């Protein structure tokens, strides 16, 4: 796909789908009954693991899971094998997308070669073949390298999407450096490892005038830095995920389904993130859908792989525990899951929608997931909202 010449409807802020009554009837939906039609959700941060790690997830299984969750557009991270750091490697991924995806998939390209942070990838050659540039999974450690990347991205009118993590502060940690880690003998990851690099990058954005988006923010200091940057007119946006909004480290269990990067942090961080969600500091809800094999997630907190899944449950959890709980409105949730991510990344909303029964209650059961990944801290949670049909570009993607 040429990302500078996408001819689909650019009016992504106007939701006016053409409803296919025949598809609804085939799905057993009475169009005059209690169902709610919602615009296709957009997740700007997923890992579909292909090429290279198809035992964890594939484009086929990932997009089926996404469609079940009501998503019609996703952006896939480049930490694959081979890494999406060259035109050849990106084309390999694009061929799989073209063959197997049942929704729109927009791949990221890496900022640096092999995501090593040592040498800038050929961003100019990659620019029209990717949605943005990211080394997600790795923070760009060198300030000079990040400045160079921002200047090049600015010249190409592309966004730098940053996983912010200062490796010098990690010290072998794998959960939040808080009370639970201290009481249970675990090595902690301090919040400073995230916010110090966000602070550095915001300063570089002010200098370079680059468009900049922060991945999966998790701590109160990051919220404050981004809020202040926006007040100063700096071109920065950010995302968080539901596990940072609804969980804190007092809830941790000795199980790999509670391990992700960045980690679930303190209750005060969760409260600050909720305030950022309410006041507009946080722009997008992303899932950071990161599937692994059952074996990779069965090694406890210390040795399990980082990452959980969430794309099939994101909307029901958000609707139940944010909207029905009175924390945010339904309109605000749609801004976070539909309109803001599409606006920021120039992703159209065409004839994309899903059909929900918002009154239907069910229990999150990972064994029923379409994703190959089953690890989620939300297993067993009661939620409202069941999707009966997803239509992407006028075609059925899930029923």
Walk me through what this model shows:
The protein is α/β, with parallel strands linked by helices and 399 residues long. The protein has one domain (21-398): TIM Barrel. It is built from 13 helices and 14 strands. The protein has helices at residues 21-26, 59-68, 87-100, 123-126, 143-156, 179-184, 192-208, 220-231, 242-246, 267-279, 300-303, 314-323, 330-345, and strands at residues 36-39, 41-46, 71-76, 104-107, 133-134, 159-162, 175-176, 188-189, 211-214, 236-240, 284-285, 353-363, 382-392, 395-398. Helix 8 links the parallel strand 9 and strand 10. The longest helix is centred in the middle third of the chain and has 17 residues, at 192-208. 54% of the residues are buried.
């Amino acid at each position: 796909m040429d990302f500078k010449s996408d001819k689909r409807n650019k009016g992504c802020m106007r939701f006016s789908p053409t409803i296919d009554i025949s598809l609804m009837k085939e799905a057993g939906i009475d169009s005059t009954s209690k169902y709610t039609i919602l615009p296709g959700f957009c997740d700007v941060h997923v890992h579909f693991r292909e090429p290279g790690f198809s035992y964890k997830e594939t484009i086929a299984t990932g997009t089926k899971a996404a469609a079940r969750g009501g998503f019609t557009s996703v952006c896939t991270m480049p930490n694959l094998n081979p890494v999406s750091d060259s035109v050849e490697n990106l084309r390999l991924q694009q061929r799989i997308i073209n063959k197997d995806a049942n929704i729109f998939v927009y791949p990221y390209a890496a900022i640096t070669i092999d995501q090593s942070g040592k040498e800038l990838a050929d961003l100019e050659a990659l620019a029209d073949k990717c949605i943005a540039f990211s080394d997600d999974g790795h923070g760009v450690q060198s300030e000079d390298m990040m400045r160079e990347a921002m200047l090049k991205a600015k010249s190409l009118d592309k966004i730098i999407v940053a996983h912010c993590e200062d490796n010098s502060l990690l010290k072998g940690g794998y959960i939040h450096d808080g009370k639970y880690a201290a009481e249970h003998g675990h090595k902690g990851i301090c919040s400073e490892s995230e916010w110090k690099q966000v602070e550095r990058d915001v300063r570089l954005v002010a200098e370079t005038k680059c468009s900049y988006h922060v991945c999966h923010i998790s701590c109160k200091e990051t919220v404050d830095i981004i809020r202040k940057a926006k007040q100063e007119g700096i071109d920065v946006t950010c995302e968080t995920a539901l596990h940072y909004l609804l969980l804190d480290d007092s809830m941790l269990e000795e199980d790999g389904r509670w391990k992700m990067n960045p980690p679930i942090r303190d209750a005060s961080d969760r409260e600050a993130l909720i305030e950022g969600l309410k006041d507009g500091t946080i722009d997008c809800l992303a899932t950071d859908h990161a599937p692994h094999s059952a074996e990779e997630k069965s090694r406890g907190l210390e040795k399990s792989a980082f990452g959980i899944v969430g794309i099939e449950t994101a909307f029901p959890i958000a609707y139940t525990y944010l909207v029905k709980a009175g924390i945010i409105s339904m309109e605000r949730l749609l801004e976070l899951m539909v309109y803001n991510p599409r606006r920021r990344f120039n992703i159209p909303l065409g004839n994309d929608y899903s059909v929900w029964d918002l009154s239907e209650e069910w229990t999150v059961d990972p064994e029923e997931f379409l994703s190959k990944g089953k690890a989620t801290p939300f297993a067993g949670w009661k939620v409202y909202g069941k999707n009966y049909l997803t239509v992407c570009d006028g075609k059925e993607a899930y029923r």
